[in-house]
User: Which sequence fits this backbone?
């Protein structure tokens, strides 16, 4: 480890310890209020709906391309099955 990283970590720890539990509780309370606000909740709902729509479109495009990929080359499993069949016929 680099000494500058260790020094930075120690300084961060000391400053955090000085801020104490009370400041930590203040930060948590503010974060909970922000996360619970109507604006944030509405924005999260919109973003989730958009992500679901994009994922559905991507899934559809992928499903449309999968048959094309399989028809362009023989699959390794069918080649292996043919080889196994030949061995049994010997």
Assistant:
């Amino acid at each position: 480890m680099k000494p500058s990283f260790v020094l930075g970590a120690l300084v961060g720890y000391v400053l955090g310890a000085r801020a104490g539990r009370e400041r930590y509780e203040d930060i948590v309370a503010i974060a909970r209020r922000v996360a619970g606000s109507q604006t944030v909740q509405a924005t999260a709902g919109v973003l989730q709906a958009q992500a679901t729509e994009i994922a559905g479109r991507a899934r559809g495009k992928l499903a449309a391309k999968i048959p094309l990929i399989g028809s362009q080359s023989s699959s390794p499993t069918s080649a292996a099955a043919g080889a196994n069949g030949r061995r049994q016929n010997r």
Q: What stands out?
A: The mean pLDDT is 77.
